[in-house]
C-alpha cells in the first residue's frame, strides 16, 4: 500500500504557467465580486473628485515611501484637485478633506460602513458603525442621554473633575519645562465620562483604570499605523498582524473594561427590577438616570437588544468621548499657552461671569 508521501510525489502537478494563471484568475474573480458587492458605494463615489486609479491596487503607490515623501505626495494632490477628494488603497475608499464643509458632503453621500469600517473591531455593534434601522434604533436610545436635564446633571461631574485637573496643573505653573498634558487630561476625562454615562464612580489609583488608559493610548498608535502601512488597510491583514504581533491583547483589554462595568450595573439593575414596587419607586426618585439606564431598560424589553449591544454603546462613549474631549481640552490649553494675550482675555471673561466666588459653573 502506497504511503501518502508517495501518492503526492507521483501526482502530476501543474506547470508554473498554470499556477500563475489560476492565481490571476482567482484575483480577478475576487476583484469583480468586490465590484458587484460595492456597486452602490462605487456609484456614490463617482460624485467626488477622484485620483486616477490602478486596477486592483488603487492608489497604493501614493502612500509608499517615507513619511516625508507621503506628505509631499498628499500635499500635491490637494493643490491639483478640489476637496473632498477620494482615492483608494486596494478596495478601501479614503477621503481627503481640505475644508470643514467637506465633512458634511461626505456624510451625506456615503454610508457609515464606508467611513467607519476600520473601527469595527472595537465599535462594531455601536452607533458608530451601525447603519439603517439598527442605527436609528440605537440613536434613539443614545440621544435620550443628552437631554437638557441630563446635561445639567453631567455638569456637576464635569466641574468636579475639572477642579481636579486644575489642581494637578497648578503644580507646574512655575515650571519652565514642557509637560505631557495628555497624560493628565485623558485619565481624568475617562473617569468623568464613565461616571456620567454609567453612574459608576472610578477611583483615581485603580489598576484597572490605568490598564484601560494604557491600552487605549496604545490602540490610538496602532490604528494610526494603518494610515502609514497600506497593507493594514485590508481588515484580514490587519487582524492577522494583531494576532501575530500579540497586540490583539490591547483590544481585549479595551473591550474587557466596559464589559465589567456593564455586568456590574446589569446585576444592580436586575436587583432593582426584582424589588417591590414601593422600594423601586423610592430608588428611581433617589438615583439619577444615565445612558446605561436607558440601554438596560431597552435590553429588558427587547430581546434583539443584547448585552453585547449595551457593552458596545458604553465602550463607544468611553472611547470616542474620551478621545474627542481629551483632544479638544489639550488643544485649547496648548493654544492658550502659546498665546498669553488670549489666555488673559479668557481669564477676564471668567472673572466677569463668576467674580471672586468659588461657585461651580452652571448652564445659566
Summarize the structure in words.
The structure is a single chain. By secondary structure, the protein is mostly helical. It folds into two domains: 46-108, no CATH class; 145-173 and 180-354, Cytochrome P450 (Cytochrome p450), CATH 1.10.630.10. 68% of the residues lie in helices and 3% in strands. It has 17 helices and three strands. The protein has a three-stranded mixed sheet, with no helix packed on it. The relative contact order is 0.08. It is found in: Endoplasmic reticulum membrane; Microsome membrane. Belongs to the cytochrome P450 family. GO terms for molecular function: heme binding; iron ion binding; monooxygenase activity; oxidoreductase activity, acting on paired donors, with incorporation or reduction of molecular oxygen.
Output the CATH class name of the largest domain: Mainly Alpha
Class from secondary-structure proportions: mainly alpha
- How far is it from the N-terminal to the C-terminal residue, by CA? 91 Å
Determine the number of helices (DSSP H or I, runs of at least 4 residues): 17
Q: Order of SSEs, N→C?
A: HHHEHEEHHHHHHHHHHHHH
Give the strand content.
under 5%
Q: Give the CA-based shape.
A: globular
Which strands sit side by side, in order, in the main sheet?
1-2-3
Give start-end ranges of low-pLDDT stretches.
280-287
Amino acid at each position: 500500500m502506497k504511503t501518502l508521501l508517495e501518492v503526492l510525489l507521483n501526482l502530476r502537478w501543474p506547470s508554473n504557467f498554470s499556477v500563475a494563471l489560476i492565481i490571476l484568475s482567482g484575483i480577478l474573480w475576487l476583484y469583480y465580486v468586490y465590484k458587484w458587492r460595492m456597486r452602490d458605494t462605487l456609484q456614490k463615489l463617482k460624485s467626488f473628485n477622484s485620483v486616477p486609479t490602478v486596477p486592483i491596487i488603487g492608489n497604493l503607490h501614493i502612500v509608499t515611501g517615507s513619511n516625508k515623501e507621503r506628505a509631499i505626495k498628499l500635499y500635491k494632490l490637494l493643490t491639483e484637485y478640489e476637496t473632498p477628494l477620494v482615492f483608494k488603497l486596494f478596495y478601501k475608499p479614503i477621503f481627503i478633506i481640505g475644508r470643514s464643509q467637506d465633512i458634511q458632503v461626505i456624510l451625506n453621500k456615503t454610508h457609515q460602513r464606508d467611513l467607519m469600517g476600520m473601527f469595527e473591531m472595537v465599535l462594531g455593534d455601536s452607533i458608530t458603525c451601525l447603519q439603517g434601522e439598527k442605527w436609528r434604533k440605537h440613536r434613539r436610545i443614545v440621544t435620550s442621554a443628552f437631554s437638557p436635564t441630563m446635561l445639567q446633571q453631567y455638569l456637576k461631574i464635569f466641574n468636579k473633575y475639572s477642579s481636579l485637573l486644575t489642581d494637578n496643573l497648578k503644580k507646574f505653573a512655575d515650571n519652565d519645562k514642557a509637560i505631557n498634558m495628555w497624560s493628565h487630561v485623558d485619565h481624568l476625562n475617562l473617569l468623568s465620562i464613565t461616571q456620567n454615562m454609567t453612574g459608576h464612580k472610578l477611583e483615581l489609583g485603580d489598576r484597572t483604570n490605568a490598564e484601560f488608559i494604557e491600552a487605549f493610548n496604545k490602540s490610538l498608535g496602532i490604528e494610526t499605523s494603518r494610515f502609514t502601512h497600506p497593507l493594514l488597510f485590508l481588515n484580514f491583514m490587519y487582524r492577522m498582524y494583531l494576532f501575530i504581533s500579540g497586540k490583539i491583547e490591547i483590544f481585549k483589554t479595551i473591550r474587557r473594561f466596559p464589559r465589567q462595568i456593564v455586568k456590574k450595573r446589569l446585576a444592580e439593575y436586575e436587583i432593582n427590577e426584582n424589588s417591590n414596587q414601593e422600594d423601586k419607586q423610592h430608588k428611581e426618585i433617589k438615583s439619577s438616570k444615565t445612558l446605561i439606564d436607558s440601554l438596560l431598560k431597552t435590553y429588558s424589553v427587547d430581546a434583539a437588544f443584547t448585552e453585547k449591544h449595551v457593552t458596545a454603546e458604553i465602550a463607544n462613549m468611553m472611547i470616542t468621548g474620551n478621545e474627542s474631549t481629551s483632544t479638544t481640552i489639550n488643544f485649547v490649553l496648548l493654544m492658550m499657552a502659546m498665546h498669553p494675550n488670549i489666555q488673559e482675555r479668557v481669564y477676564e471673561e471668567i472673572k466677569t461671569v463668576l467674580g471672586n466666588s468659588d461657585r461651580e459653573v452652571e448652564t445659566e
